[in-house]
From TrEMBL:
Protein's UniProt name: N-carbamoyl-L-amino-acid hydrolase
Matches recorded under Gene3D superfamilies: 3.30.70.360, Oxo-4-hydroxy-4-carboxy-5-ureidoimidazoline decarboxylase (1.10.3330.10), Zn peptidases (3.40.630.10)
Claim: Hydrolase is one of the keywords in the record: yes
UniProt source species: Roseateles saccharophilus
Family, per entry: Belongs to the peptidase M20 family.
Length: 583
């Protein structure tokens, strides 16, 4: 097996030769990475090689893509693939296609090449490393055939990096065992769903209770000293230390509808595996670890969200117990049906004493494209965005599309369209500020009628409350100005106001040190999504670590993905953090 010292202590020509086959017919990648030695870790080498590709010219990148063979293509049939590609296609079963599957792949290859001008690239051993099925390969092929060329070119390069990562693991004899365990837990837990086709786990349903029970069983297997489900359904595991102080960590186990496997749950699994390794080694830290699987964060069944983490900070609103779901079931009744007390006395007793805790840390999939676009597995969160949300309606005058002159129209949809463009331009003018109109509706619209009403939503976010409030003021002022100028009226209903949650400087530095110990570049980024950490922020110092998501960083979607290698690095970073924590 190859060793990192072999690469660090040899000349450039030998360095390139040792890495032959990592990237298909492209020795220039290793040549450009060689000056970045010495590499502290294998992960550092992988990042350096990916950086060489990212900084290459467009022609060089396209040349790399075109150096790869088609899946089950002519070169495979003729036995002309490299040894690495032959092995990968063999393991994926592409050499054992049925005639129908082979014909399908040949048609897809031809259509793909005609559309993009390069071969379809897929790391057939997949995010788990154990391989996609032929059916999964064909489904991915069909989906990506519809992508925009710029998006698809970037995805091909990311798939090439994943192929190289797996090949390097083989060369070095490395197996991301903890990452594989995390991935397998995520897959097993996703087997419990309210929907037969897509993962859905909403608060206080039978599926939700089953998931909680499975998490508790795994926590006991990991060696936690205390495991239980509290009065709002949080799953709590405690691994005692040599002092009464504790570090609080975890994330949520409920999901959106049609969810991915890793949102929230990844952060629970990372901490569970850290405890498991401590227990197996018979070790205790100077502080205890309290791992919480928060029961609700997504707000999918009831209007209130962050039920689990709000409880811990003493912010559970008694009025929430009377809220109803779409079926008319109250939150109180749903809790009691799930075996929870559903009383404020039981809920209030769960508020934590901040004096007992060192802080709160959360590991979470990024849910965005930044780390994926930079070829970085981990990123350090600087702040969780503050947000304001609204639902609104602009009212004009419905009139005939053919007979009403352009200068005499009161078009409600055109007014909203102008607002959308302003919000987009205003947000784009300031770093780390975003604005979105995610819902748009013309009630009873008709192709030949000027819209008299248009309903819309507004989602305004920024890393600081000041930046959020400035955006909010400007967008609302523009709404007023648009309606006055166009002869329209409007209503606007606030639905959410959440303050930003900047990371604590000391805890952020600890995450940075942990990531640095893995030989990885330090990349800081804000979180545009809300997380349990933003509620715990009201009680404790907090900081988050992001893990790269695959498929362009998509989340809240069945395509949400994390590789076992990235999961391993997240676990390693968490273990570095707790091992280096002095109390």
């Amino acid at each position: 097996m190859m060793k990192l010292d072999d690469l660090n202590n040899t000349g450039t020509a030998d360095f390139v030769a040792l890495l032959d086959g990592t990237y298909e017919h492209s020795p220039w990648i290793a040549e450009r990475a060689a000056p970045l030695r010495p590499f502290k870790t294998l992960a550092a080498l992988k990042v350096a090689l990916a950086r060489a590709v990212r900084e290459a010219t467009m022609d060089e990148q396209l040349g790399l893509i075109r150096a790869h063979p088609e899946l089950a293509g002519k070169a495979a049939v003729a036995g002309e693939l490299t040894a690495e590609s032959t092995n990968e296609q063999l393991r994926a079963g592409l050499t054992a296609c049925t005639p129908k599957e082979f014909a399908k792949l040949q048609k897809l290859n031809a259509d793909y090449n005609a559309r993009f001008g390069w071969p379809f690239i897929l790391a057939v051993r997949g995010p788990r490393g154990s391989g996609f099925t032929r059916q999964e390969i064909i489904a991915t092929f069909e989906r990506r055939l519809r992508a925009h060329p710029d998006v698809e070119r970037a995805e091909c390069l990311r798939q090439i990096h994943r192929i190289a990562e797996i090949r390097l693991n083989d060369k070095f004899g490395v197996k991301p065992a903890l990452g594989e365990q995390l991935w397998d837990w995520a897959a097993a837990l996703a087997g419990h769903s309210e929907d037969e086709t897509f993962l859905t786990c909403t608060y206080a349903t039978p599926t939700h209770t089953t998931v909680a029970g499975q998490l508790m069983a795994w926590m006991r297997d990991c060696g936690f000293d205390e495991v239980g489900r509290d009065a709002v359904g949080n799953v709590v595991g405690i691994y005692r230390g040599s002092s009464d102080k504790r570090l609080l960590t975890g994330s949520h186990y409920d999901t959106v509808r049609r969810a991915g496997r890793f949102d929230g749950r990844l952060g629970i699994f990372v901490a569970m595996l850290a405890v498991r390794e401590l227990h197996r080694a018979g070790r205790r830290l100077a502080f205890g670890l309290e791992v919480v699987g928060f029961s609700e964060e997504e707000g999918q069944r009831f209007p209130a969200d962050f039920l689990g983490s709000s409880t811990l900070v003493g912010a559970f609103d008694p009025a929430w117990l009377g809220q109803t779901d779409a079926a008319g079931t109250t939150l109180r009744d749903a809790m009691q049906a799930a075996g929870l007390p559903g009383t404020m006395d039981a809920i209030s007793a769960l508020a934590r004493d901040p004096g007992r805790y060192l802080g709160f840390v959360e590991v979470h999939i990024e849910q965005g494209p930044v780390l994926d676009s930079l070829d970085l597995p981990l990123g350090i969160v600087t702040s969780i965005n503050g947000s304001r949300r609204y639902t609104g309606e602009i009212v004009g005058l419905a009139s005939h599309a053919g007979t009403t002159p352009m200068g005499q129209r009161r078009d409600a949809a055109a007014g909203v369209a102008e607002l959308i463009l302003f919000a987009e331009q205003r947000a784009a003018a300031v770093p780390d500020v975003v604005a979105t109109v995610g819902m748009l509706e013309v009630p009873a619209g008709s192709i030949n009628v000027i819209p008299g009403r248009c309903r819309f939503s507004l989602d305004l976010r920024a890393t600081t409350d000041a930046a959020r409030d400035a955006l909010d003021a400007d967008v609302l002022a523009k709404l007023e100005e648009i309606c006055e100028r166009r002869g329209l009226s409007y209503t606007l209903q606030p639905t959410l106001a959440a303050n930003a949650a900047p990371s604590d400087a000391a805890w952020q530095s600890r995450w940075e040190a942990a990531v640095g110990e893995l030989g990885l570049p330090i990349h800081r980024l804000p979180s545009g999504a809300g997380h349990d950490a933003m509620k715990i922020h009201e009680l404790l110092l907090q900081a988050m670590l992001f893990v790269r998501g695959g498929n362009g960083g998509i989340s809240h979607n069945p395509l949400e993905s994390v590789t076992t290698d990235d999961a391993q690095l997240a676990i390693d970073a968490f273990r570095q953090l707790i091992e280096n924590l002095n109390v």
